[in-house]
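Worked example
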Amino acid sequence: FASEAARRLSRWDVLEEVHSPSFKLRQKAVSWEAKYERHLGEMFLGFRRREESLVIRGFNDAVKTLTQPLASASLVGYRQAADLLSRAHCALVVLDAAKGEHEPLLACMEDRVGAMSPSLRFREPVLACRITSLQLLGKRHEAGEMFIKLAKLARKSGNQGAAMAASNRALAMGAENAVVEIAKLQFIRGYKRDAINMLSKEIIRSEECLSENDRDAKIRLASLRLRLGRWSEITKSIAPSEILDNYRNATFLAPESEKPSYMLGRYFDVLLTETLQAPNEKPGSLLPAGARAQPMLPAEFSAREGTASSAFEYLPYILENWSNSLHLSVRYIHQVLPRMLTLWFSFYELTNGEIAAATRPSHELQKKVRRGMNEVVEKLPKSVWLTTMPQLISRLLHPSKQVVEVLMDLLAALVAAYPDQALWYVVPVTRSADSERAARARSIVKSAVSLAKSKRVAEVLGAGGTLVKELIRVCIQGVPQRTRMIKASSALKGLLRLFPSPVAIPTQKALSCQPESFVDGDSHVRFQGVDEEVVLMPSLMKPKKVSFLGSDGRKHVFLCKREDSGDMRKDARLMDFARVVNRLLMKDSQSRQRSLSLRTYEVLPLNEECGLVEWVDNLVSIRAAYLNMYRSKGFTTSFQEIMKAKEVKTCSDVSYDHYTDSEGGKADGHETSCGLPG
């Protein structure tokens, strides 16, 4: 492909020769790829000569060349057509550059690349065409910025050679972030000291030419400070006080950004953890010898300077900075809020019980933490706390009275503000086997009703309490042996009397407390009735598959289940863990491209033994898949054989529900489901 090589290297004399009438193709049968490259080369020649008619003619020919293979590939799917679409984008980039003005051109190019798959294979040809087009327009600086984009893309794809080559080209063109990109590559390659030195020099240069009113320059400098602090933290090349100074400077430079405050609070948390793990070490003794030899550490131990002798001296600074971060944005809510609550709970556990006075936090520190946590609760919007409802509920029996008071007030405010979601977390606790836990939950509900001063909240909570009681009765209700189906009109009379109900149906979507998928109260689907047919699952406890009729006219299926020897709260925590895994998968570009995720569903404990499990259609349990495979091979099995094997191996900790069949739905118990069609 002489045409492609010539235009990429800007060898216009070679490109002219390739497209001259005297140039003869060696191959008799020319592929569509070669034809496309020839037409794209014609577009660049027309662009260089400023002959718009030649550019348009080359574009039309290129599109015609792509039409037939694109039509065939599109029948298979987008992935097969992605390469062809990338080639079409390249032709459009040259056409826009030849016809458009500078500013609209850059905006159009950004939109075009943003619509493409974030893969080096597909974006690199488009970026290469953009760079060549900008060079032909004489936009050297803009072309350098495109090289920076190409270097970032190559670095994230693991192609360090291409990333370094693009970074050097950007540096030669005077791109602003070329040095930073080279430093990142050096750090990845293991030359960490060189990378830190390059970044430090770039920070000094940026500070010297920083203007007071240049907001973009301040944001860039804040980003460099954050990166220097992070790299220094990883290499432990400087004292904690200097790392903290980098993070603090970033917060001053970019006060509207949530990341500097998050990073500052995160490093205080790192110092807290390291102090807990090595309580007998002197501050700074974990640093490399070179860093310790320099007189960087202050004379007195100071939490603000990262040299506290007591781990929880850092807690007030953690609360302050993470609260500021969440107040600006909820981007780091899943990293910050659960950890903040864990530290708060752990701190007050030290102030109670028989703990030596030497290890007990001082009264002054307790005042700081109490004041800091009160400010966190007051500053953050109530909707943010919904993401931690299970964690808040789990600590209702915390040994500290101060913690319990704050918890109960916070939970009461959440129930009053968001009764549709919070109801399914708080009201079931009123049916707990632990009398003290149940009493505190009832107190929360009572306080929520008085706080809301709304008849609707009182009505929803009252109906929710009655519904939870009746659902528990349905879970434990006995049924005749060898029965596979019962009638709701005869067996579930108590439940039917409660409908229609103002209570929201607890689907995973309705109870989603994530900021990006929060469901407004007016959008919830309410209970309207129960389908007549109730299916009994073939397991020892006979869980009931109940179809609830919603106000949206659809059926919402749940499994009313009792765990005789287990705890439904463990099932709920397993789903919480699966959602954490999904968030981690979504952060990785390769995982997003492959659509990797765990299929989750809602699990609602009604008490320690009973609960609701949201039904997922069109799934086959792994046991059902294995049984079908065994039957095809001529093997048979039964519950009796399984139980005999269980008794022989004395596996007394395995419950019956581990050997249940779901009949084309969500597996009963903890079985794993595979995505086979039901």
